[in-house]
Amino acid sequence: MEEQVSAEKSDGMKQEWVNLIRVFTCPEDEKTRDVLVHHMRQILFELHDFLIQNVGITEAVSLKEISDRCTDTVMNSLPEKRLADVVSGVFEEIAPHAVNVASPYFVGHMTAAIPYFMVHLKAIVAALNQNVVKLETSKMLSVVEKQVVAKVHRIIYQKDEAFYREHVQNTHTSLGSFTEGGTTANLTALWVARNRALGPVGAFEGVEVEGLPAAYAAHNIDRCVILVSRRCHYSLRKCGGILGIGNGNIIPVPVDRTNRMRVDRLAEMIEGFKKEGRTRVAAVVTVAGTTETGNVDPIPEISALCRKEGIYLHADAAWGGPTLMSETYAHLLKGIEQVDSVTIDGHKQFYMPMSTGMVFFKDPTSLDAVAYHANYIIRKGSVDLGSKTLSGSREANCLILDSAFKIMGSRGYGMLIDHGIELARSFAEEIERRGIFQLVTRPELNILTYRVCPAPFQEEMAQASPERILELNEHFNEVNRALQQEQREAGNSFVSRTVLELETVFPGFPEGKVVVLRSVLMNPLTTMDVLRDILDEQEALYADWLRGTSTRKGRNREDAI
Amino acid sequence: MEEQVSAEKSDGMKQEWVNLIRVFTCPEDEKTRDVLVHHMRQILFELHDFLIQNVGITEAVSLKEISDRCTDTVMNSLPEKRLADVVSGVFEEIAPHAVNVASPYFVGHMTAAIPYFMVHLKAIVAALNQNVVKLETSKMLSVVEKQVVAKVHRIIYQKDEAFYREHVQNTHTSLGSFTEGGTTANLTALWVARNRALGPVGAFEGVEVEGLPAAYAAHNIDRCVILVSRRCHYSLRKCGGILGIGNGNIIPVPVDRTNRMRVDRLAEMIEGFKKEGRTRVAAVVTVAGTTETGNVDPIPEISALCRKEGIYLHADAAWGGPTLMSETYAHLLKGIEQVDSVTIDGHKQFYMPMSTGMVFFKDPTSLDAVAYHANYIIRKGSVDLGSKTLSGSREANCLILDSAFKIMGSRGYGMLIDHGIELARSFAEEIERRGIFQLVTRPELNILTYRVCPAPFQEEMAQASPERILELNEHFNEVNRALQQEQREAGNSFVSRTVLELETVFPGFPEGKVVVLRSVLMNPLTTMDVLRDILDEQEALYADWLRGTSTRKGRNREDAI
């Protein structure tokens, strides 16, 4: 009896194993192939229909309800679903409660529609499953990555053909690399900057080997700082923390009314540290497309200053970088060819799927400052890309960008940039035309901020006492905070909100914060008609607020943040 | 005339814009849909046919030739290919020179076949294009990530139902997160460890804010070290460098003959640092599945020691973690429920596509040590996952693992683990059975190392003088190095090679290095028949070598590394 049970079990397990083997094997029969292709068809076209049920993160089903559905933490032992069930499960249970970032009405964040072919390209990358950490698991894809990196490097730095011929496939130098996002790209650049600022001297082997405290002693300093635009991305503070410099030593440089770094203040700060004598400025970070307002620092002036002072200059162009592909607007990033390194995100204005970043270096030997080797891979002198990246194993996203360039050309990307910038300008005009809105930051690239604040109040605030300004400002902060949430939850459209210093609106008035609505215009399907709808809805929500009929008031909200 | 040209140009641009809009729009007509689906069919099935032309990175087309094809660095301005051309281009020009990591004969690295449905799941993630950095761009996917993280956490830590009910969807605590790979996971864990070891004290705000030199002063120490297994992954040294501790302060603890950390030596080292008084041990890192040999440290003993000494213990189970899903072999990782944090890679034995890692924390408040906030997202108290991750924007890979669990069950994963471990044992027997091989490291999980070294030489070395041992060893290093390259380039199969300390083979004899062949057995399609073929080929290559007919000799090699 026992034997029989055991035999049965063994038969069952044999069948399970056969099933398992099957999912690892390319099916030969047409019927199975058709089923797999059918699921791809669903993914390509039907998913869309479920997603468009809502644009924002509506309250139709509250976050609490969704969370309550996802509390089971015991993993199933036996298979419980086939791929078909999983796909329909995603459609019915997940997609309707995901966020339709591809909607033309979703203009609040730097995540938007991507071209259809991107899904195919991502599927190719997954099907190839190459690992570009080393040649032995990628071969040609390592070579492709070097080429694609060189292509973008060339758009930024515009060196001559001889330079690129020397470096494009040079296994001893590196023009940059793909990363998993902007944070990793910025971290890589500042890691290089830190190591160059605190390199070997005498018996000291360099900060990478001996650490920061030993480096400060060897370099005879008490402190290391990185100067960044006050409008820089929060990841730069994080980088300061990770790299051991301390996020308190990531020092914000004041910006002018257009959110651009004040070069005079930067010069004063550098001068101050020099006089004081025991602080090393390891790097300056300039922004080409601030996250909140889309402004570009005066890179030529900053770059000239850094060169004079011998300070490493990094440009965070995670957002704005692809502007270089626009014939009309590339000039907005002038000077970027002079900076030591540049971050550009692939999943932003290169319209690649999450998560792709890139970092580029003017000096092809820069990444030597962070090189690592191991016995089993990335041996010294090898072609293995992993020797000079923060990450180890890494997918071949270079293939996606390489293919996208072929399909759209730099001109296609340029047209997307032009559309965003020109749409932002028209949107700004429309905002100013309507009496109830106040344009808070004028678009330079394709991002702008504004708020509900009717003209009479704007006029009053322009000449009111500081107390009254703060009072009115606080009132409109509350209005705009509520309005953004109401609109988001209604699910027709989505703008984001952030908080800027009051000085941005009232020069010489640094106290207090302004809650603003933020629009990021990167979706080519977004038109002025769409944006007028969004403003109409906001006007209506404000009218409700004034009439006191807002559904918001007194509601118990578990995700108001 | 000029006007006409301008009008034509404008018409041309209008058409370009229409084309551009089209790729962002879900096609309504069946014909277009069929074309897009056809390409997915090609990706699913035809890609395979091109990939299987070679297994390893053959010399059929040399790296130099491939590099020479990828030297154009001028980006095309106009679109030059349609998706159809890109897909066929990938098939014909790239896939044949990529590496067929999915082949059962590719047993050299931790990259292998993935189930077919993974390509669908990756396509879903791309099509949804959610960004889990914040709720506003992911909603339900943020919730799903918390649930999946909790499921794996439960497999590791086995806390009770009440614990998981409290934390699974708790927005104030975190059981861990997805990362882009093992390096980022290890870096996250050691970042937490560093910040806990050097936290706020008195007026000192903590290392994250004030940096390492200030932290050493405030904590009254001169040095901070992290003790790691000598067999640990190179990423841990890298983490030491990045975190500002210095990779020279990542101190290797000796291992025994089975490549497991010597707890006696660890205890001595900790004792030594305590006596000396000015060095803080910020963390110990134990390995559950060494990269080169697949061994597991004695976690219970290491854990008991660390608890006694109050030292943070991290487990790098990037490779071995999923062993916990095997009913038969989970015990190999016993004690892992006691460590403070655990790294597991998704793209290794969870069989997910590149690039996915995960990190888990026993204490759900651990990640508070590395929390960051910003005005426009991840505001304090929000549900936004980005507040406690190294990365910012991040794709929703949780959906892939969640679905894979549903399709395969923990039991399916367990069977894959069992297959690998049992196959490794049989392979070891076969290696020992054949007279010309020497098993260098016996498999504990599913990795083993061996080398060509015929029995008579093994016997001679067992009793030879140190000089003779080194001489013979050098000879076989040369043989095995050459043989691994020959086999790789022949393109039928692939094992990797690495270098181990001689002591592993000859106890008490630490001088010199042993070049070994390394097999990683994770592909369910790999059988003993396959492995026997691989050994046969190696025997034949060695016979060629002995006859002096090896093609290798005197060849000019540009990628011998």
From TrEMBL, chains A, B:
Molecular function terms from GO: carboxy-lyase activity; pyridoxal phosphate binding
A Pfam family recorded for this sequence: Pyridoxal_deC
InterPro entries: PyrdxlP-dep_de-COase, PyrdxlP-dep_Trfase, PyrdxlP-dep_Trfase_major, PyrdxlP-dep_Trfase_small
Keyword annotations from UniProtKB, A to Z: Decarboxylase, Lyase, Pyridoxal phosphate
Keyword Signal on entry: no
Transcription regulation keyword on record: no
Highest taxon of source: Bacteria
BP GO terms, sorted: carboxylic acid metabolic process
Transmembrane annotation, as ranges: none
Cofactor(s) demanded: pyridoxal 5'-phosphate
Entry GO terms, CC: cytoplasm
Signal sequence range: none
Modified residues (N6-(pyridoxal phosphate)lysine): 348
Recorded family membership: Belongs to the group II decarboxylase family.
Protein's name in the database: Glutamate decarboxylase
Origin species: Desulfoluna spongiiphila
Lineage of the species this protein comes from: Bacteria, Pseudomonadati, Thermodesulfobacteriota, Desulfobacteria, Desulfobacterales
